Amino acid sequence: MNFGAALDVAIGLIFVYLLVSLFVTALNEYISSFLNKRSEFLLQRVQSLLGGDGSETRSGDWSPQMCAVWNHPLINALKSHNLAEDHGTKRGALLKNAPSYIPGKTFAVALTETLKPSETAHLSFAQLKTAVAGIENNEPLKAALLPMLDDAEGKLDVFQQNVATWFDRAMDRTSGTYKRWIHRLTFWAGFAVAVAFNVNSLQLIDNLWRDPVARAGLVAQASQSVQGATEARDVEANLAAPAPTPAPTPAASAEGDEATAPECACDGGQSAADLAQDLPLPIGWSQEGLCALVHEPLSSLPPSKRPASACKTPYRTGWSATAKILLTLLGLAITGLAVSLGSPFWFGILQSVTNIRATGIKPDRADGTAQR
Q: Where is the segment annotated Disordered (predicted)?
């Protein structure tokens, strides 16, 4: 087995996964923003913390504490529009106006002030304890706040910190729920993109293994992309780290400009997506590709009997057509599953594999600078 060719196939496949993952990530952000999923998960969690069961958005049965906290000026300031809302607000308008995030400290202050009697200017701890004990028809919220009062030992700021910690931990669980939803969305979006553009992993592997030109071109573009990202990160790190130096002499300045010019020069080459389209990769649907699902391949016929088009070859037998379609669906599903891992995962893998191909990372110079 040719290990070098196998490694190049892996690099090319990973690079394709990275490109599709970037596209799917942008698609996911659009879908999530269009559906207001962050706001929906946040609203459901706030309703749950304030004594609801998560169904209030549809049923319209908000607790008094939920209405008071949700319409508090500190929470309203985080909304798209400073509007008062309650169970009568339509769900679409409610989610569109709801914030995506609420700081724990802001929630704690808003909840504390909603418990303050209307005639009280400054809330004391004793008044707060009386207000919590007097909560009616909301036993879950009352049961959650009473232990925080006991733990505060008579200090209002400690109670607010306890509430903020309680809220932040609930938001961590909400974040986990949202990430699981995004993960499922990423898989189905990746599968849909793979079907739409015919990004078949099995077909890609076969094509890259058989076609050294496409394999070499894709590997070169992958290596160039990794190197460009590494150089951009190094430049960003150098700009972030203050390192004052004495003013250079004119000669030294000219020499430095000449030395740094190649690194700062813009690369006018093709983008990864453009190159992937130009390379002879089996990506995208064509009449020949569709015919290959139900017709015998041209290679199965002797050269003297091969027609001009794959669509004119004999139809596959029942088992042959079924196997071809199942393998195509399997290859598309593999792409969707791979894309669901996310672009950061594939970029990290691509860096590691390209370093292996380049015989490892060069050691730093004696002065501590990295070698190019």
A: 240-265
